[in-house]
Amino acid sequence: MAQHIVLDRVSKRFPPAKRGGEEIVAVDDVSLSIDRGEVFGIIGYSGAGKSTLVRLINQLEPVSSGRITIGDVPITELRGRRLREQQTGIGMIFQRFNLLTSRTVAGNVAYPLEVVGVERAERKRRVAELLEFVGLAGRADAYPEQLSGGQQQRVGIARALATNPQVLLADEATSALDPETTVEVLDLLARVNRELGVTIVVITHEMEVITRIADRVAVMEAGRVVEVGTTYDVFTRPSTPVAKRFVQTVVRALPQGDELEQLRAKHEGRLFTISFTDEGASEARVFSALAKAGIDFNLVHGGVDDIQGRVYGLLTIAVRGDADAIAWALQRVGAGVRVEEQR
Ligand SMILES: Nc1ncnc2c1ncn2[C@@H]1O[C@H](COP(=O)(O)OP(=O)(O)OP(=O)(O)O)[C@@H](O)[C@H]1O
């Protein structure tokens, strides 16, 4: 895939909060390449620099150093009218929706079109088309406060798409929504990506958002990108401590501490964790291979997760047998199977 958004050694420093204090390095020497048409996730704890990073991408904030190009346009070099023209090609949606409360749904979606001088009839046509796309055709004359959170975010998405952007930036766009509404909004974003070919950058602290829609993910810590990869790779094989902590909140973790002790007390034999990716393996194949090899086991912990529609299993079993026997039994199940004893 072709590169779409390229960050080359980008930093953003803010002056110290008080005189004589330390400068704040919100984004620290970040280089990243986001492909055209992908959904790219950025995760990290509060203060890691995620919001600042997206605000640099659309140049709501100037960079302190480094360079950002979008398509072949060096957006960090532009000023004035040329910058504003490029900014209309980048839509943005927010956690708090940021709708204009005094305008109707249609008025909100029309707003960016008015700003760029699209004439009235064309505006009407475009607004109708956008509201249809986000499933709010019947609510054109409602005011934001009359809508649910999910509906308001759909208006936000329609407004962000009004000027036909190639890029959509979503800053915690589902964080104020309940789980069910989150799924609806994520499905809409996935459609925006698939049907309109828009490159989407999502910042979130909700891992489900990433496993559901992001093709790739970057992990930020203290202004730096410490890990980047396909969502599946990062979630099944996180390499940094911070990525491991995030991943554990959604992908089944190994039993640890008290939980492990309880399992040990409750079950006879030794505990082994079998992990597998979708390279030919499945829970059923693992179980049947163990049974065929005559290994007497109990599943005591774990299960199978779905990451971007792909399977990831982490099964802890209690067995009377040894690691070699288990590894031997499982060796033909698939390339992605690993066995580890929980000591
Ligand atoms: N305009 C600003 N002036 C001074 N410091 C700022 C400014 N914007 C952000 N920062 C600081 O930069 C760092 C990164 O903040 P940022 O909001 O980008 O992080 P984040 O990962 O998006 O966190 P959150 O999810 O809480 O928004 C923080 O230390 C923050 O206080």
Helix and strand sequence: EEEHEEHEHHHEHEHEEHHHEHEEHE
So what's the CATH class of the largest domain?
A: Alpha Beta
Can you name the CATH architecture of the largest domain?
3-Layer(aba) Sandwich
> What is the tally of helical segments?
12
Task: Give the tally of β-strands.
Answer: 14
Q: What is the first-to-last residue Cα distance?
A: 44 Å
Biggest sheet, spatial arrangement of strands: 6-7-8-3-9-10
Task: Label the overall shape.
Answer: elongated
User: Could you tell me the mean pLDDT?
Assistant: 91
Helix- and strand-based class?
alpha/beta
Structure description:
- The chain is α/β, with parallel strands linked by helices and 343 residues long.
- The protein has two domains: 3-248, Rossmann fold (3-Layer(aba) Sandwich), CATH 3.40.50.300; 257-341, ACT domain (Alpha-Beta Plaits, 2-Layer Sandwich).
- Helices cover 35% and strands 29% of the residues.
- It is built from twelve helices and 14 strands.
- Strands 6-7-8-3-9-10 form a six-stranded mixed sheet, sandwiched between helices.
- Strand 7, helix 6 (179-196) and strand 8 form a beta-alpha-beta unit.
- Helix 3 (105-115) crosses helix 4.
- The relative contact order is 0.12.
- The mean pLDDT is 91.
- The protein binds adenosine-5'-triphosphate.
- Adenosine-5'-triphosphate binds next to strand 2 and helix 1.
Identify the notable features of this structure and list them briefly.
6-stranded mixed beta sheet, alpha/beta, 12 helices, 4-stranded antiparallel beta sheet, 2 domains, 14 strands, Rossmann fold, binds adenosine-5'-triphosphate
